[in-house]
Design a protein that fits this description.
It is a single chain. The chain has four helices and 47 strands. It has 457 residues and is mainly beta. The chain has a domain of 175 residues. Helix 4 links the parallel strand 1 and strand 2. The protein is elongated and about 70 Å long. The two termini are 24 Å apart.
């Protein structure tokens, strides 16, 4: 595994494959499985279509990790069964009225605004790069059934909302759609010192030329019981975060990045927390299909990373140098990449996996389940039924990586060349700790290759 350069190539002389070839031709002929660019990018074609009723939160996928309720469904309710939503000032179904209400709320140091039911606030004017006045005070926008804020398709290109320093915006039961930014934040831009809370809402079909198709976060953003879907950007198709990001009981799905971080790109020293959420079917046209982490901290609990893809490294999760990640009670499955289909962890990164299932991930090079050259600890987990066209079906450990396994099962993985269960490159270290219950069995064509002490076969 190479360092995170755009021109990554496998380093075995007999391969002669190119990234373009495998991305086009896929896995035809290997275990009957196929991976193609067309199959990997359904979201790309969908972005830009007119909004339909099928864009409802949670429509595309009813499953959630570890038996928890569907992401997108919340429990912010009182004992009487009604949602605890603060009441505010009604805003008639008019974009001009909404603009006036936000302007007044900023001047009065904040407000709670109740938007009209079954209303689309159709934005037509560019106000400093957004369709609505920048948020500079604590403001809550309460929607209800079928309330949306949307840029008119005939209007100039602008994002929907900007949150500036001192601004604290809360969105309840709203759909934010159709924003287009020539810079960052196609849907919403949160500047440094700003805060955003998204609850029971959908951010969809927004486009940014640079970072954050749905949301670009440089401050603090919380996403709860919401869906971020069908957005596009160069980096961070769904969300690009240079600040602190929390995603709880939500779905980040079917977003596209023309570079890194199809679902989420986390960067520049911030912290990203993902809990009881699903990151699925996102596409990065370079690296980090589901989540791309650069020089920051990632903590994922009770969540699923599923069906994400990228033609280079890290179909599910990619950790760049100096990134730190902890994955607990996580399912990582059916992701695809050129290398490290489930998780790709580069030199200098730290990865801890606990009580996780890594399964059915597919790579055309090395590391079907996990590819690492960093410091990796795997505890109480299962790495099962992953596929590598070259080496390391379950785990590929490259120099100078260290992988330590405790009470972990590496079973029924497949590599076409060698290291069906584990491949350890020269200069790397793999410690199985079999006394703790670690087993490496039933892998093909062999369980281990390279220097893997205590591995049989």
């Amino acid at each position: 595994m190479n360092h995170p350069h755009q021109d990554h190539e496998p380093n075995r002389p007999d391969e002669g494959r190119t990234r373009g070839r495998w991305w086009t031709l896929g896995l035809a002929g290997v275990a009957g499985l196929a991976l193609t660019a067309a199959a990997a990018t359904p979201a790309a074609a969908a972005i830009g279509r007119p909004l339909t009723a099928d864009d409802r939160p949670g429509k595309s996928d009813r499953s959630s990790a570890d038996g928890h309720r569907d992401a997108g469904k919340g429990d912010d309710k009182s004992k009487g069964g009604k949602e605890n939503k603060p009441k505010g000032t009604p805003v008639p179904c008019s974009a001009d009225q909404l603009i006036a209400a936000i302007t007044l709320a900023n001047a009065n140091d904040g407000a709670i605004l109740d938007l009209a039911k079954d209303c689309t606030y159709l934005l037509t004017a560019d106000i400093d790069g957004a369709g609505l006045p920048a948020i500079t005070a604590p403001i809550t926008l309460n929607g209800s059934k079928n309330t949306r804020i949307e840029r008119s398709t005939t209007a100039d290109e602008f994002r929907i909302l900007t949150v500036n320093t001192g601004g604290n915006l809360t969105l309840n039961k709203l759909k934010i759609a159709g924003g287009i930014s020539e810079d960052n934040g196609g849907g919403i831009l949160v500047n440094e010192g700003g805060e955003l809370t998204v609850k029971h809402s959908t951010i969809t079909r927004n486009v940014a030329d640079n970072n954050g198709g749905g949301i670009a976060n440089n401050g603090t953003t919380r996403v709860k019981n919401s869906t971020i879907t069908l957005n596009r950007a160069e980096v961070g198709g769904g969300i690009q975060s240079n600040g602190d990001l929390t995603v709880t009981e939500s779905k980040i799905t079917d977003n596209v990045a023309s570079d890194n971080g199809g679902g989420i790109d986390a960067n520049e020293g911030g912290t990203t927390l993902i809990h009881k959420s699903v990151i699925s079917d996102n596409v990065a046209e370079s690296e980090g299909g589901g989540v791309n982490v650069v020089a920051s901290i990632l903590h994922v609990t009770k969540s699923e990373i599923r069906g994400n893809s990228g033609p280079e490294e890290g179909g599910g999760i990619r950790l760049d140098e100096s990134a730190q990640a902890t994955l607990q009670h996580v399912k990582i499955l059916k992701n695809r990449a050129f290398e490290g289909a489930g998780v790709d962890s580069l030199s200098g990164s730290t990865l801890v996996i606990d009580k996780a299932l890594v399964t059915k991930n597919i790579t055309l090079a090395d590391g079907g389940g996990i590819a690492t050259e960093g410091d990796t600890v795997i505890r109480n987990s299962e790495i099962v039924s992953n596929l590598a066209e070259d080496i390391g079906g379950g785990i590929y450990n490259d120099d100078p990586g260290t992988v330590s396994l405790f009470n972990t099962k590496v079973i029924k993985n497949l590599a076409v060349l060698e290291g069906g269960g584990i491949f350890n490159e020269g200069g790397g270290t793999v410690i199985l700790n079999p006394a703790t219950g670690t087993v490496v069995i039933k892998n093909r064509p062999d369980n281990c290759s390279g220097d893997v002490p205590d591995c049989v076969g």
